[in-house]
């Protein structure tokens, strides 16, 4: 009879999932912080030039904060996982399995809220300000939010694996 | 020697946590769907009367959808937990523990994204439209988002308990 399937994935799969998360978050961050648009407005016959940047939208500031936290956490976990693959054992012992489990849980919530704050603000701001130039700015923000959502999904998958790994090491 | 502390909470605590979640979500829903404001706008010397409702903001529609899903799920879990308290055993057996674990996980993500979409849209729309009457509308939306956030937090706590309960029943 074949042995029962293990519920914990191999360390190589875990590393690949972390690298995938890292790539999603990094590309999302680059798109978000390089996203600018210059608007030429005419209010009460006075021409105004306004430059929009991610800092001008509170939701995008929160997105950047959540992505930076996510990148730092994912890098740390990638180092731990690469150590595990090369040394054949988990660094830090049982305590680190608990760190994985709760860390992944909290981090996936942070990334989920970052992505949905981005979508929430962008979709409604885009429909409120139907200007051609601003549209491009908001479309790029949607792309960044989608990549952050993908980063959340891969972290959520890591979270399921680390939850399943916890009782096996307790 | 005292027995090791159980990581699973009593069914009574579980019921109370579900009822708390239900109350947060219900009050949030009532505030959100009864929130309206009439705006008197003057655009190009033409007076316009616009009535704002939750349906006019996409993020609030998503909030309502996430709250309704959360209320349905919480009611179902409350019934299961009350049955467990009164009968002294869990309805449905081992399969239901997995339903609890993954259900709580997915539901907490839905509520977290609902709350943050609400905050994301409201804070930026509020700063973009600095009208006295609209301010009241957005302030009520912030209250609804905060209650939804509390509903998420209590579901996240339920999720930690149901994750810890799962390996004990496998």
Automatic annotation (TrEMBL), chains A, B:
TM annotation in the entry: 15-41, 62-86, 137-161
Top-level taxon in the UniProt lineage: Eukaryota
Keywords: Cell membrane, Membrane, Transmembrane, Transmembrane helix
UniProt-annotated location(s): Cell membrane
Membrane topology summary: Multi-pass membrane protein
Residue intervals of the Casparian strip membrane protein domain: 12-153
UniProt entry tagged with the keyword Metal-binding: no
Gene Ontology terms: cellular component: plasma membrane
InterPro entries found in the cross-reference section: CASP_dom
Pfam families from the UniProt entry: CASP_dom
Family of the protein in this entry: Belongs to the Casparian strip membrane proteins (CASP) family.
Assembly behavior: Homodimer and heterodimers.
PANTHER family given in the database record: CASP-LIKE PROTEIN 4A4, CASP-LIKE PROTEIN 4D2
Protein name: CASP-like protein
Origin species: Nyssa sinensis
């Amino acid at each position: 009879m074949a042995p029962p399937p293990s519920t914990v994935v191999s360390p190589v799969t875990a590393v690949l999932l972390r690298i995938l998360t890292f790539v999603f978050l990094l590309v999302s961050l680059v798109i978000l912080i390089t996203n600018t648009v210059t608007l030429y407005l005419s209010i009460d016959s006075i021409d105004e030039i306004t430059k929009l940047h991610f800092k001008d939208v509170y939701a995008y500031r929160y997105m950047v904060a959540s992505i930076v936290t996510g990148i730092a956490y994912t890098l740390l976990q990638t180092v731990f996982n690469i150590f595990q693959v090369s040394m054949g054992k988990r660094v830090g012992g049982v305590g680190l399995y608990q760190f994985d489990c709760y860390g992944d849980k909290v981090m996936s919530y942070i990334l989920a809220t970052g992505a949905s704050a981005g979508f929430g603000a962008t979709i409604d701001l885009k429909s409120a300000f139907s200007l051609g130039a601003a549209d491009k700015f908001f479309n790029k923000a949607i792309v960044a939010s989608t990549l952050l959502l993908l980063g959340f999904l891969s972290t959520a998958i890591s979270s399921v694996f680390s939850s399943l790994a916890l009782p096996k090491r307790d």
